[in-house]
């Protein structure tokens, strides 16, 4: 019986998955932090504010070193995730406005 060494690409995939999870967690935290302050915000304004905060590295206390590139698709995906989890909600009369 001969054991093969662990494949390198498996470690790379695990690292990429971990990086994507961290990015999603940071984006979700930014979204909730912004909406906690604003209480309600148009979804377009929220996307621009999150992208701007990522670009400037304003991820919050203890996370200033996390300056990374994010796109509107990343932010919208996190918004949908938070809506499904019940952390955010849409206004009935104006569904483009999100509330915390």
Automatic annotation (TrEMBL):
**All copies of domain Cullin neddylation, residue ranges:** 19-96
Return the SMART domains for the record.
Cullin_Nedd8
Its domain of life reads Eukaryota
Which InterPro entries does this UniProt record tie to the protein?
A: Cullin, Cullin_neddylation_domain, WH-like_DNA-bd_sf, WH_DNA-bd_sf
Q: Which residues cross the membrane?
A: none
* Signal peptide residues on this chain, from the entry's feature table: none
Entry-linked PANTHER family: CULLIN 7-RELATED (PTHR22771:SF4), CULLIN AND GALACTOSE-BINDING DOMAIN-CONTAINING (PTHR22771)
Supply the name of the protein.
CUL9 protein
Lineage of source species: Eukaryota, Metazoa, Chordata, Craniata, Vertebrata
């Amino acid at each position: 019986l001969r054991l093969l060494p662990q494949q390198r690409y498996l470690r790379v995939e695990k690292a990429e998955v971990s990086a994507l999870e961290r990015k999603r967690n940071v984006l979700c935290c930014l979204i909730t932090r912004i909406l906690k302050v604003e209480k309600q915000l148009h979804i377009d304004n929220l996307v621009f504010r999150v992208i701007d905060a990522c670009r400037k590295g304003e991820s919050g206390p203890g996370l200033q070193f996390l300056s990374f590139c994010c796109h509107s698709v990343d932010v919208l995906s996190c918004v949908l995730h938070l809506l499904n989890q019940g952390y955010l909600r849409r206004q009935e009369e104006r569904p483009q406005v999100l509330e915390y």
